[in-house]
Amino acid sequence: MENADHGGGPSRVAFLGLGIMGWPMAANLARAGFELSAWTRTGEKAERFAAEHGARAAATPAEAAEGADAVVSMVVDAPEVEAVLLGDAGAAPSLSPGALCVDMSTIAPRAALRIGERLRDRGLTLVDAPVTGSRPRAEDGTLTIMVGAEEEDFQRARPLLDAMGRLVVHVGPPGHGAMTKVIANTITAINAAALAEALAMVNRAGVDADRFLEVAGSGSSASTMMELKARPMLERDFDPLFKLEHMLKDVRHCLAEARELGIELRLAEVAERLYAEAEAAGQGEKDFAAIATVAG
After folding, report:
1. Domain identity same for 165 and 183
2. Mean pLDDT across the stretch 181-188?
3. What is the pLDDT of residues 252-291, one digit of tens each?
4. Does the pLDDT of residue 4 top 80, yes or no?
5. CA-closest candidate to residue 106, choices 13, 276, 227, 245
6. 38: closest CA among 52, 25, 28, 49?
7. What's the alpha-carbon Rg for the chain, to the nearest Å?
8. How many domains is the chain partitioned into structurally?
9. What is the rounded distance in angstroms from the CA atom of residue 161 to the CA atom of residue 131?
10. Domain boundary residue among 172, 187, 215?
């Protein structure tokens, strides 16, 4: 696709991380006309993405960032964000002052602020912009994106974000995107655990699961979680759309932030123990619906 007019925002973008979410998000940027370079840990995967989407494959984050006016990172956690932006062969030294670093990973809010400070010392700007919505929504560009940034930086990043999400919300200053995400994911984790326990009791009692879901889904117990995860839990279909180990990581980030704020999150603490039990039982690489394996 020919380069499009992106309203004065970035046009040359380095995308770092082509995992379950990163690949379709980067593909949407390519379809929107951004000039894209791509890096991921597996060089062959970057080459395949480049061939399919008209991008340039890079051997390192630094190489990907050469000539870019924005970097988008979508990796696992803060150590990986620091590595791809500020580590050996990281992107930051290849960027010109004023470039945007848009991190869409889910990391601890304090880590986002710390990384932002280090980038600011280099004349660069971090926008923390984690997403909600699993792989299908990444594929069709309908993610919800929560953004922590100053207003000017948010507006500069907006064309990029609009290419990947349907709802883009400026939730506050730097760090607030990450804070919003870990709180929201903890609600998701608790909801999934509650649903898993309910379905375990349905099965043990011999209640018809289809009839139960029909009734529960028509009342105040209905939820998006029930719509998305009840059937996978019942059928033990745990193909990962969002890995259980990543959900556990996010709950732990939320609990750490709560402790700093002097708040006790008792339901989150129970959820953390359940997800830790599932991970210890070998479910970490599976979808977080695998919490059903330790429920009941």
Report:
1. no
2. 97
3. 999 999 999 999 999 999 999 999 999 999 999 999 999 9
4. no
5. 245
6. 49
7. 20
8. 2
9. 10
10. 172
Measured N-to-C along each axis, helices 109-120 and 176-205 cross at an angle, to the nearest 10 degrees, of 150
Residue of 181, 229, 243, 249 marked active site: 181
Question: What is the token pair recorded at 220?
Answer: 């105040």
Find, among 7, 34, 263, 41, the residue nearest to 164 by Cα. Answer: 34
65 and 200, same domain (yes or no): no
Nearest-CA neighbor of 38 among 25, 55, 21, 24? 55
Cα–Cα dist 9/27, whole Å: 18
- Please give the full DSSP string across 34-100, using - where no structure is assigned: -EEEEE-SSHHHHHHHHHHHT-EE-SSHHHHHTT-SEEEE--SSHHHHHHHHHSTT-SGGGSPTT-E
CATH code of the domain containing 46: 3.40.50.720
pTM of the model: 0.92
The tokens describing 64, both together, are: 């990907």
pLDDT tens digits, one per residue of 18-50: 999 999 999 999 999 999 999 999 999 999 999
243 is catalytic: no
Residue 230 reports pLDDT greater than 60: yes
